[in-house]
Amino acid sequence: MDQYAQRITQDYPVRRKAQEKENMRAYLMGQLRALGYDAKLDDCGKAVNVIAGDPERANIIYAAHYDTPLREPLPPILCPTRPATYLLYQALTPVLTLAACFVFSVGVTFLLSAPNLTLPLFLILLLGALAYLRYGPSEQNNINDNASGVAALLRTAEQLTPRYRNDVCFLFLDGGSENMRGAKGFRKRYPSAKEKPVLCLDCVGSGDELLILPGKSARWNGDLLDAINGSFENSERKTCYDKVDGLVHFPGDQRAFRQGVAICAVRHVSGFGRLIRPTGKDNRIDDENLDLLSRGLVKLAAAYQIKK
Fold it and tell me: pTM of the full predicted structure?
């Protein structure tokens, strides 16, 4: 396993509570400074990002969220190229929650012969379900989401030559699992970054295809797309695919930026198309994915510099 991914999964496996995030930020700051970067903390109030480089001077921004999510009741899946399938699966959780609360409340009050308590018990159970979103247990098997993206960025920062370091800003985002708090805070703090390409790496560790998903505005940035196509290469086992047509949806931090681009790793599954399993015991980090990504991002820094 990649040295950065191994260190993160061993020493900072969960990064959801305040102290866990603080420990992770200290590690990131130490690694980036050891690599020769001027790293700093950016406190946005509800989130604290780690920034290496100058967002104002950079031509392009590479980002990944470093926090981890709570454990969801159903195994989470993402289907970037099949939004309808993804939304239907997401709807299962609230539907099943409502059904379970209703059945349990009716069953208990029926056994107690107290039908007048059915509604109060149902509402109490619903409040408990809502409280789970804040106080539920942390996901332990999160190596793909998003130790993989953080490790890929650190490897890219290590390989990037001094000539292009002033042209790239590395952004490690907080709040990726909390409605993009870190990304929104960064966008507010650095308004000039609104028009710059922001490539967000998320769930890039496990999959046979590296999928590059430019947002609506990024699809019209011809210089960026040409640079991406010329920078990312295939290997014998892996494919890098830049999808610029059709309806796609990836619920990542790239949505906070006008020129946002999501990069993820997928595998083809019948009925789901390109599928991502963000968490789970079978998750792992494929070093070849990180190698292809880091080499592509290093080349992109130079290519977009020329085409800018």
Answer: 0.93
- Can you tell me the distance from the alpha carbon of 186 to that of 190, in angstroms, rounded to the nearest whole number? 6
Number of Cβ within a 10 Å radius of residue 212: 21
Each residue's pLDDT tens digit, 239-276: 999 998 888 999 999 999 999 999 999 999 988 999 99
Among 236, 206, 58, smallest CA distance to 146 is for: 206
Query: What is the number of alpha carbons within 13 Å of residue 36 lying toward its C-beta?
Result: 10
* Element at 265 (helix H, strand E): strand 260-269
Are 213 and 264 in contact by the 8 Å Cβ rule? The answer is yes
Contact 292, 240 (CB under 8 A): yes
Q: Is the pLDDT of residue 184 over 90?
A: yes
Enumerate domains of the chain plus CATH numbers.
3-71+139-307 (3.40.630.10), 93-135 (no CATH)
